[in-house]
Amino acid sequence: MTLETIFVTQLTSIIGFIVVLFVLYRVLVAAKNATIESLKQQVNLQEQKLSGYENQQPDILLQVLQRRTEALEKELEERVGIQNQSPEEHKDSIERVKVIEEELKSNELVMERGLVVTRNARRITAHTRQYLLKMYNDTCQFCGLQDSQVMEMAHIKSFSSGGESSIRNMLLLCSNDHRLFDKGKWSINDDMSLLGKSGQLIISPKHDISKDSLKWHRETVLNSSVT
């Protein structure tokens, strides 16, 4: 066997090995893409199911979210446990884990705070009211009065103007301050300082108030009462 023949044989073997590796790589990429596409389809299907529940009772939606959360937790566990990944696959897994963790965090907030409101009804759940009462220890966020009997849930952006009955658009106020707030006698800056009275709004770190709702109240309700 000549050197040329040996060289050709070895070169052929190397090329064959490279082809096998390339085919294997394409198979793995195709499998990964198929998995991602399947996950996207599941998410889209879940969104369609959720939209179909918008006129249903809140506890039905919570059950759907609970099942979705369980599926995400299982996937997260599997993702974290994957070994011997290529750099590209590892990067994709990290990104997917971030997405899963964000969705789990969102689901946890919904199920914990009861932020489930139908689009066609002005519903404030008992869970939401109790959550705010507990958060502020039955205390009015404006005047500091502590009495659960006179505490009310106040929309920052009114429901009639498209405001949601969610924690981000709600305040816990005594009945008197609630009425004055709705009449535009006082409002709130983005830094939670008060307009119409010196001082700061009583605010819990857990209460993420919508800046858009605050802006709406200042521009629409407060300004209209001043002019």
**Number of DSSP-assigned strands:** 4
Order of helices and strands: HHHHEEHEEH
Computed over alpha carbons, the radius of gyration is: 28 Å
The fraction of residues assigned to DSSP E strands is 5-15%
Query: Widest sheet: strand order?
Result: 1-2
Bulk shape: elongated
Helix and strand content put the structural class at mainly alpha
Low-confidence stretches: 53-57, 115-122
The major sheet is characterized as: 2 strands, antiparallel
Helix content: 55-70%
Report how far apart the termini are: 102 Å
Mean pLDDT: 75
Number of domains: 2
Question: How many helical stretches?
Answer: 6
Q: Mind explaining what this structure looks like?
A:
By secondary structure, the protein is mostly helical. The chain has two domains: 7-113; 126-226, no CATH class. Helices cover 59% and strands 6% of the residues. It has helices at residues 3-52, 58-81, 87-113, 126-135, 175-182, 211-226, and strands spanning 151-155, 170-174, 187-188, 194-195. It is elongated, with a radius of gyration of 28 Å.
Give descriptors for this structure.
elongated, 4 strands, two-stranded antiparallel ribbon, 227 residues, mainly alpha, two-stranded antiparallel sheet
Would you kindly provide a brief summary of this structure?
This protein has 227 residues and is mainly alpha-helical. Helix content is 59%, strand content 6%.
